[in-house]
Amino acid sequence: MTPGRPVPPPLAKPITLDTSESRTGSTLAAAYGATSPDSGLVPLTVARRAPKEDDVEIAIEFCGLCHSDVHATRGEWRVPPYPLVPGHEIVGRVTRVGGAVQDFAPGDRVGVGCLVDSCRECESCLDGLEQYCERGNIGTYGAVDPRNGDSVTQGGYSTSVVVDRRFVLRVPDALDAAAAAPLLCAGITTYSPLRYFDVEEGDSVGVVGLGGLGHMAVKIAKAMGADVTVFTTSESKFDAARALGADHVVLSKDADAMEVANRSIDVIIDTVAAPHDLNPYFRTLRLDGALFQLGLPADDMPPVSPGLLIRRRLAYAGSLIGGIEETQEMLDFCAEHGVVSDIEVVAAEQLNEAYDRMVAGDVKYRFVLDTATLQEPSERADA
Fold first, then answer.
1. Which of 207, 176, 198 is nearest to 4 (CA)?
2. CA distance 60 to 368
3. Which of these, 28, 103, 282, 320, has the minimum number of CB atoms within 10 Å of its CB?
4. pLDDT digits (tens, 9 = 90+) for 229-276
5. Arithmetic mean of pLDDT over the chain
6. Quick one: three-class SS letters along the chain?
7. Cβ(48)–Cβ(162) under 8 Å?
């Protein structure tokens, strides 16, 4: 497991794919995806529906690579519906819109994150918290889409996508398109708990782990005016943390250094996706502090001491990406403060190498696919 993996929307159960060529009004898009757990990423062609009244058709320019993409395509969480095109950090330009769409027009730069639909009726959806849809949200890839004939959604490692306007985001021109792509997952995943806790100037924020999520947490917390402390198990990360804007760096395996940090932090963003002991971090929190868990370890974590929580009225919470309104707020905030992800752009033929490097932790801090390097679509859809 690699630190910095966000909690993803769940994959749908496998269903039989319609791979016929008779999809009325659909267009074909070049893509890369997996055809089995051990196939690696290979060239594919996907069918995209013709835009309906509320739809936006997008020519994809860039798509971020998330560690959850690796687990999904390799079937490490569950067997997904293959073929599967991953990618939920999409930035591109609008090419067509449906007749009822008034808030987007051809040429607009837009984005699509981890969700492409939800029930739109439950209390969570009505509160703008589509990520917590009580009937189950529709993930950008690998999910059954009931509004579109129970087709399986296919993601952003492709040249185009069609999405309901309610789940399309406006990407400000001030943001670099490629570096903005990871904001749609890593950015909102870290922004949401900081916003929920109302972090502001003068607050102290701790960040555990300095991967794809951690580096975004540092940047966003600094932009909010916080004093930022990075906790890391590696002294080699000290310079990198300071370069990102961290005010303090603490070697978490150094008991003396952790003692110095006692009662110094208001809120901690924990991005580590491997099992680790949280109790030392609770000791660094002030009265009424909170620790937000963003990483999802595959194995059980060491137990939390209730006494630590009780004695300082601490909160231990989780957080899942963000709703559409909050994601737009995050994009506008990042544009205002000049916050983007640190990225390495890769071509389609480098995707499998990039996956291996993600697993090895060899990336600072996010990979982004340039979709201009995709092949031409074939005459028949694979998915």
1. 207
2. 12
3. 103
4. 999 999 999 999 999 999 999 999 999 999 999 999 999 999 999 999
5. 93
6. CCCCCECCCCCCCCCCCCCCCCCCCCEEEEEEEECCCCCCCEEEEEEECCCCCCEEEEEEEEEEECHHHHHHHCCCCCCCCCCECCCCCEEEEEEEECCCCCCCCCCCEEEECCEEECCCCCHHHHCCCHHHCCCCCEECCCCEEHHHCCEECCCCCECEEEEEHHHCEECCCCCCHHHHHHHHCHHHHHHHHHHHCCCCCCCEEEEECCCHHHHHHHHHHHHCCCEEEEEECCHHHHHHHHHHCCCEEEECCCHHHHHHCCCCEEEEEECCCCCCCCHHHHCCEEEEEEEEECECCCCCCCCCCHHHHHHHCCEEEECCCCCHHHHHHHHHHHHHHCCCCCEEEECHHHHHHHHHHHHHCCCCCEEEEEHHHCCCCCCCCCC
7. yes
Q: Could you count the other beta carbons within 10 Å of the beta carbon of residue 111?
A: 26
pLDDT category at 296 given cuts 50, 70, 90 is confident
How far is 9 from 297, CA to CA, in rounded Å?
Answer: 15
Q: Which of 50, 64, 65, 134 is nearest to 96 (CA)?
A: 50
Instruction: Give helix 186-196 / helix 324-337 axis angle, nearest 10°.
Output: 100
- Phi-psi region at 107: left, alpha or beta (left = phi > 0; alpha = psi -120 to 50): left
Indicate the length of the chain as a whole number.
383
**Residue 24: what pLDDT?**
59
pLDDT, tens digit, for every residue of 91-110?
999 999 999 999 999 999 99
**Cα–Cα distance between 283 and 48 in angstroms, integer?**
51
Q: What is the dihedral of CA 156, 347, 80, 121, to 10 degrees?
A: -20
